[in-house]
Amino acid sequence: INEPLAGRHVLVVEDIVDSGLTLTYIMDALRARTPASIKSCSLLLKPDSLKTPIDVDYVGFKIGNEFVVGYGIDYAGKFRGLPHIGFVEYGH
User: Fold this and answer.
1) To the nearest whole percent, how much of the chain has pLDDT over 70?
2) Can 15 be counted among the known catalytic residues?
3) With helix as H, strand as E and coil as C, how does the chain read?
């Protein structure tokens, strides 16, 4: 992001928060740029997979540890274009 963030309201939008490490890094980096406020939202949150404590301000759905695909989320470059979210069953 090349735009100055000082004094601006920032919303970070994620598709899925799994470990929380990426969102934590992004939020910390953006906070250092002194925005007026910063919030996060995610379509999907895997609370049982979090490796760092993070509060996502707006969550669409909390899910289990399933590996999900579709609606922009892919597996090895496949399934991104599905018009819904599904999960991958291993061994079938």
Assistant:
1) 98
2) no
3) CCCCCCCCEEEEEEEEECCCHHHHHHHHHHHCCCCCEEEEEEEEECHHHCCCCCCCCEEEEECCCCCEEECCECECCECCCCCCCEECCCCC
- pLDDT at position 92 is 53
Provide the residue type at 56 as one letter.
Answer: V
Percentage of the chain with pLDDT > 90? Answer: 76
Q: Which one of 18, 48, 55, 57 is the catalytic residue?
A: 18
Cβ contact 37:57 at 8 Å = no
